[in-house]
Design a protein that fits this description.
Layout lengths: L1 E5 L5 E6 L2 H4 L5 H15 L58 H17 L3 E4 L9 H11 L4 E4 L6 H7 L5 E4 L6 H6 L2 E5 H11 L1
Parallel strand pairs: 1-3, 3-6, 4-5, 4-6
Antiparallel strand pairs: 1-2
Helix pairs in contact: 2-3, 4-5
Length: about 210
């Protein structure tokens, strides 16, 4: 399929051919859900933890004698039934990551790209560069294009000026092509690809 190429100043810069096998797939919400869950699970720190009975601070002395008190037998004040005692079956430090088939991950990225193209929210620019790195200059360009929430994907590297300008825009992200992922594509309304990104993504996903 042919798509018009524009500049960041909203000028025309020709056309580019997009592969139907990458940008023309049917919508698959189930695949997108799996991939996003996989991404977010990998991001979880997994540092939550409660203390078991061996880690709780306190005496190891038996609270009172075994028999003759009229109360239930007790062996430690660090037991979970006492205030300040251990937590039973509480969370422990662990990784939340799980395996996901590489074909599913690839299909998820293709589906996310296809959905943006189908919705008319995928734009191709000739290049993503910003001299001076001023946030105000980039904000004006984004407003003129009608992009309030956008993800900009460049080629192998990201222009330093653009990366610096984006840091002060909360609804705009910029990534190199190798960092293109389903979660970041879906969380922004508009997807902007440079011609270099189109070429790199085609190599990666073909």
């Amino acid at each position: 399929m042919k798509v018009n190429v524009v500049t960041l100043d909203n000028g025309k810069a020709g056309t580019v051919e997009l592969s139907d096998t990458i940008y023309g797939l049917p919508s698959r919400p189930d695949i997108l859900h799996q991939v996003v869950r996989w991404q977010l699970a990998k991001r979880q720190a997994g540092t939550h933890k409660t203390k078991d009975i061996a880690e709780v601070s306190g005496t190891g002395k038996k609270p009172y004698k075994q028999k003759g008190t009229g109360h239930a037998r007790q062996g430690s004040l660090r037991s979970p039934q006492f205030r300040g005692g251990a937590i039973i079956f509480g969370p422990q430090v662990r990784s939340h990551a799980f395996a996901l088939n590489k074909k599913i991950r690839t299909l998820g990225l293709k589906t996310a790209l296809s959905d943006k193209q189908r919705e008319g929210k995928l734009f191709v620019v000739d290049e993503a560069k910003l001299a001076g790195g001023k946030t105000n200059a980039l904000a004006k360009k984004m407003k003129a294009m009608g992009w309030e929430s956008a993800l900009i994907i460049d080629g192998e590297t990201v222009d330093e000026g653009l990366a610096r300008a984006v840091t002060n825009l909360k609804s705009v992200d910029v990534l190199p092509s190798v960092g293109a992922n389903v979660y970041d594509i879906l969380r922004r309304d508009v997807l902007v690809l440079t011609k270099a990104a189109v070429e790199q993504l085609e190599k990666r996903l073909s």
